[in-house]
Amino acid sequence: MDDPIPTITFPDGTEVPALGQGTWGMGEDAGHAKQEIASLQAGLDLGMTMIDTAEMYGDGGAEEIVGQAIKGRRDETFIVSKVYPWNASRTGTITACEGSLERLGTDRIDLYLLHWRGNYPLTETVEAFETLKAAGKIRAWGVSNFDTDDMQELLSVAGGQNVAANQVLYNLARRGIEYDLLPWCQGRNIPIMAYSPIEQGRVLHHPDLIHIAKAYQATPAQLALAFLLERDGVFVIPKTSNIERARENRGCVSLDITDEDWEALDEVFPPPAKKTPLEML
User: Fold this and answer.
1) Which one from 57, 112, 170, 195 is the annotated catalytic residue?
2) Low-confidence ranges of the chain (pLDDT < 50)
3) CA-wise closest residue to 164 among 88, 277, 78
4) How many CB atoms within 10 Å of residue 107?
5) Which partner from 151, 154, 278, 281 sits 20 to 30 angstroms from 38, CA to CA?
6) Is 84 among the residues known to form the active site?
7) What b/e string do you get for 128-167 counting C-beta neighbours within 10 Å, with b at 16 or more?
8) pLDDT tens digits for 114-126?
C-alpha cells in the first residue's frame, strides 16, 4: 500500500494533495488525446487529484483534455487554470475565465492564476478575480511567476491579501526561490506550486542524483519530486502522458531520505547564496 500523499492547506482551509498533475504540452496533438486523458485519469485513481492547466497550453487544448478526463469525477478534482497576461483586464479576465470553464466542461475553477505579469494593473486583475469569486466561477485565485517584489506589490493592492498561491519554476537545478521568495511565502501561508519539477527531464541524467536514487531503489524523478515535497507549503505538479510514469510519480511520497543524503544533494545542487532574478521557462 502506498503511503498517503501529504496535503497542503490553502489560506481558506481547503486541503489539497501536495502531489498533483501538470498538463503543459497536452492538447497539442489529437493523436495523443486518448493517452493523455488515460494518464490523468490514472493519476486521479492514485489520489493525485489536483490538475494544473492553462488557457495557454495547446491554445486551450489542454483544458479540453482535462475536461474529458474529469467527466463524472469533477467533485473529486481540484482544478487550477490560468489567464494570459494580455487577457487580464477587468473585463478580459472574466471573458477568459468563461472560455476556460467551457473548455473544462465545469461551472467552477478551484484556483485561477494570473500566468505572469503583463501590462494591466494588478488592481484590475484582482478586482476581476474577486468578481469571479463572488459569482462562484472560481473558488480562489493566485498568481504565477511572481517574485518577492511582485508579491509585496500584490499585497498592497485592495483585495491582494486574498492571493491563495504562487506558481513558479522550482526544482533541484533551480533553487533560487529558497533565498527569499519561498520563506516569504511560507511566512504568510501562501503555498508555492512548483512547475517543471524535474526540469523537463534534464536533471534526471545527473550521475549523483542517479546514484543516490539507486540506494533507495527509486528513480531519479522520484528523488527529485521527494526533494520538493520535503519543503513546507510546496505543491508539485509533474506532467506525464504515461500511466506507468504517473504511478512512478505517485511512489515518490514513500521515500524516506536520510539527512546525510539530503546534504549530499545540497553539495551537488547547492542552495542559493544570494538573491537571483526569478527564473522562468
Assistant:
1) 57
2) 1
3) 78
4) 9
5) 281
6) no
7) bbbbbbeeebbbbbbbbbbbbebbeebeebebbebbbbbb
8) 999 999 999 999 9
